[in-house]
Amino acid sequence: MRNIYIFNLFLCLGATATRFLERNLAYKSPFLDAPQLGHNIDNLHKRQVQHVRRQMEDAGIFEDEHYVTFYGSDFSNSPFIWSGGLNFTHAGKMLGDPFDTSVLLWARAAPLPSSGSSKLPDQSVPVCLSYQVSKFADLSGPPVDSGEAFTSYDVDWTVKIEATGLQPDTKYFYRFSDCTDPTSTSPIGTTRTLPRPDTAADNVNGGNPFILAVFSCSQYQAGWFNAYGYAANFVKPDIYIHLGDYIYEGLGNGASIGRQTLGRELATIFDYRQRLAQYRTDESLRAAHLSGPWITVWYVADNAWKAGTADSNDTSIGCSFSPSGACFTDRKLSAVRAYHEWMPIRQVVSNDKLRIWRNFQIGRLMDLTMLDTRQYDRDLTDVSVIDKLVNTISSYENRSLMGAEQEKWFFQTLSQSQARGAVWRIIGQQIVFTQLNLSGTCELSKDAWDGYRANRRRVLDHLYGNKISNTVILSGDSHANWVSDLAYPNDTTKYNPISGEGAIGVEFGGTAVTSPSSFGPISQPETVIVSQAFVAANADLQWSEGFYRGFFSLKVDPSQLNATFYAMNDIASANLKGFATAEFIVKAGESKLSRPVAGGTVLAGALKS
Ligand SMILES: *[C@@H]1O[C@H](CO)[C@@H](O)[C@H](O)[C@H]1NC(C)=O
Ligand SMILES: *[C@@H]1O[C@H](CO)[C@@H](O)[C@H](O)[C@H]1NC(C)=O
Ligand SMILES: *[C@@H]1O[C@H](CO)[C@@H](O)[C@H](O)[C@H]1NC(C)=O
Ligand SMILES: *[C@@H]1O[C@H](CO)[C@@H](O)[C@H](O)[C@H]1NC(C)=O
Ligand SMILES: *[C@@H]1O[C@H](CO)[C@@H](O)[C@H](O)[C@H]1NC(C)=O
Ligand SMILES: *[C@@H]1O[C@H](CO)[C@@H](O)[C@H](O)[C@H]1NC(C)=O
Is the pTM of this model over 0.85? Predict the structure, then answer.
């Protein structure tokens, strides 16, 4: 059976010897125009081919380490592949960045040592995976797309494939298997394609609401990632969105809840890979990755800006903070490389600064615009050592959060979205947009748009000036929930906080999956008192909640959008206990929260009215 299988593969190859490496996007540079940041596939291929020569020469005792070749008769130019068994180490595979006819598939498969042997399998032999995509849950019938790709230790045994030729707005199932043993497979995962950009809003998702689930700030040592599992089981989103801090670079201390982080503070690519691998052992996170496509934007390290993070930069003292002595730029490249290996994000067209901002047209129902308000080109944020400095410069006109290129692209994208007749403009980005000023009790966070006030004003100018409607900003980072109408900060002449008249959109800021509350370790009733003060002091802020960890969902249809905020009961153990704390409605065309806000009742936090 095995021989026949391999023979069949030969028939459909007829390919250049490196195509199995090329098929795996993990070998490529994260950035299309920076090939130097990828692997040199020709060199990898040459190295792999060395194994053939080794066994044809008189090099001592022949040792059968379970290699089979993969290229038929051309032994001069073909590496052996590993056939000693594979371990699909991260059973919850993932997929992401769906388009209308393609989606990224991801898996990790490491060679297994021979049974009873403590010897590590030969790490320089490539592993070959085949993948199948089908419309049927049992993968029956001819696959819609299928193929083979190599992976190796060079990319931490990850494989990232673009499955193509798919139909728009359709659900698919997929699986990876060992090319040398089709009975050794990964679990079956589910994904979907997006509708075509010109699909009428009413026809998107067969006329059903399109559901997004939105997460941020998942810190392993702070708790179990129950929010992901809750979403996978009870919300069943069409797309999972992660707004940053998917992993944390610090170690913390999670021993008391059985969540001790491995390794050390992240600096090298080894560190980042190990951390990502550990995070992905969480069952709830696995379940979420198996059940739909993800669209994500960076983490790299705490309070990152274009030239540093909270405790590192490229100065000699800045480099001394890293456990490995790696300076900020090296650390950033390690983070980016590992991110592209482990996360299903597409290589992007970039001519500068590691661009990941991008736009998804989901029929004429919505544009989902993902910004990078962290790494791309933002000026100095409030790194701890120079906090007071940022306080004084936060209102400088010449400070930028997005960088000029991204800002220009963002404004064009908003205008084009309205011009093409998309009902909703959903903006996924990392940090809180609305002004949150609780003077005396709680300083403005300068790591949010409050630290870049001129940039925020320009966004609002663009929305008001061009009468762009139905804009919904999503944010993370703050470890608390904030729901606001979008309007100029503290401007009650144009905007009426009671009726919402004069607003130009809505912001939904979500709490952390596990990271501790920004309100501090206080009781639930105490957080409500803080929230009451927040909503009283800030005109645009309509709901504040600072006790629960969780996430929120958006159910989007052409006439309205429902946002539901979920709280997890207990993150000190793995469980799926949670409840909805508040639901908000935005009616298409109104560009504000529907009144009464949240139907007038919430189960946590404080409403303005
Ligand atoms: C497969 O990998 C997982 C995760 O690294 C590990 O826990 C497990 O022991 C491995 N299985 C075998 C048979 O080596
Ligand atoms: C660089 O980092 C060091 C150590 O945190 C700090 O003392 C210094 O002020 C930082 N410089 C800049 C420009 O961020
Ligand atoms: C930015 O603006 C501030 C205040 O107007 C000014 O002091 C500073 O020199 C400007 N910085 C640059 C780089 O132009
Ligand atoms: C809002 O503006 C008023 C003056 O118009 C000022 O007194 C108040 O402190 C401001 N509040 C906030 C939260 O910025
Ligand atoms: C914050 O609120 C205080 C008190 O209400 C006010 O004095 C201050 O100007 C406000 N800050 C900003 C940036 O609006
Ligand atoms: C949105 O909320 C309204 C009011 O609670 C409800 O009638 C409607 O069914 C909800 N829509 C969806 C898609 O859940």
Answer: yes
